[in-house]
Amino acid sequence: MKRRRRGRVAGLEVWISAPEDVVLKKLISYREGGSDKHLRDVAGMLRISGDSIDREYMERWSQRLGVDAEWRLITDHESDWSPRGEGS
User: Fold this and answer.
1) What is the average pLDDT across 19-43?
2) Dmax of the chain from CA atoms?
3) Residue 66 has what DSSP assignment?
4) Cα-flanking dihedrals φ and ψ of residue 14, to 5°?
5) CA distance linking residue 22 with residue 27, whole number of Å
6) Which residues, 6 or more positions from 12, have their beta carbon under 8 angstroms from its beta carbon?
7) Is the pTM of this model over 0.85?
8) Tens digits of per-residue pLDDT, 57-87?
């Protein structure tokens, strides 16, 4: 959580998690529960965030947290993930 930052939401000062940390948590949740929703969420975040996601950080921390296979599942097939109702 060292990468978190302060921000304002609805006039309140709050802590906002770095997108990379949200992605890592989603990958952990997928590993624990198996719901594809987490993978779709991650794919959507990558699609929206583009190059702003620190891929080196993701590689390093996905290995440390034991979710590197899940990370590769997304990154190796990024073009295959589409929003609901689109694609196959």
Assistant:
1) 93
2) 42
3) T
4) -135, 165
5) 9
6) none
7) no
8) 999 999 999 999 999 999 887 767 655 444 4
Q: What is the C-alpha separation between 81 and 39, in angstroms, rounded? A: 9
From the centroid of its chain, how far is CA 5?
Answer: 17
Which residues fall within 8 angstroms of residue 81, CB to CB, at 6 or more apart?
A: 39, 40, 43, 44, 47, 74
Where do runs of H (alpha helix) occur along the chain? 19-33, 36-49, 55-64, 68-75
What is the residue extent of each domain of the chain? 18-80
Answer for the pair 65, 31: CB distance below 8 angstroms, yes or no: no
Residues in the chain: 88
Buried residues in 54-64 as b, exposed as e (16+ CB within 10 A): eeeebeebbee
Amino acid at 67: V
Tokens of 37: 């929703």
Type of residue at 26: K
